[in-house]
Amino acid sequence: MGGEPASTPAALLWPHPGKREALSGRITGALIYGQAGDRVLSVSTGLVVWVGPYRGFSRVVLIESENGYTYVYGGNEETLVAVGDRVRKGTQIGLLGRNAHQGIPQLYFLVYRDGVPVDPSQAPRS
What we know:
- With about 130 residues, this protein is an all-beta fold.
- The chain contains no helices and 10 strands.
- It has strands at about 20-25, 30-35, 40, 45-55, 60-65, 70-80, 85, 90-95, 105-115, 115-120.
- Strands 1, 2, 3, 4, 5, 6, 7, 8, 9 and 10 form a 10-stranded antiparallel beta sheet that branches.
- Strand 4 (about 45-55) and strand 5 (about 60-65) form a beta hairpin.
- It is globular.
């Protein structure tokens, strides 16, 4: 995931344009690096179902899409949406913060379908 994989269309929307690194193990998804205060965008239209702090992940936003995927955006310093908000693809949902442990600005981007992790590069952007 460090850059655009060959099988990933160049137009695929990511929540942040920074360098990506695959996460595997206890957490499966992508870690995206940027600058503190950078915009974090929703990659899908959906309903905000949870917003709040979560230990080690700063502020987190969960968005459920109509096609059954749940998109998780962790590492926000500030969130710009509330539970019950409907967002569209490309809506700014937060501002990137710093990792509590290393002090590095980074976004945790995770995707689930029916509670099962999905490779973020394969998840739909609708």
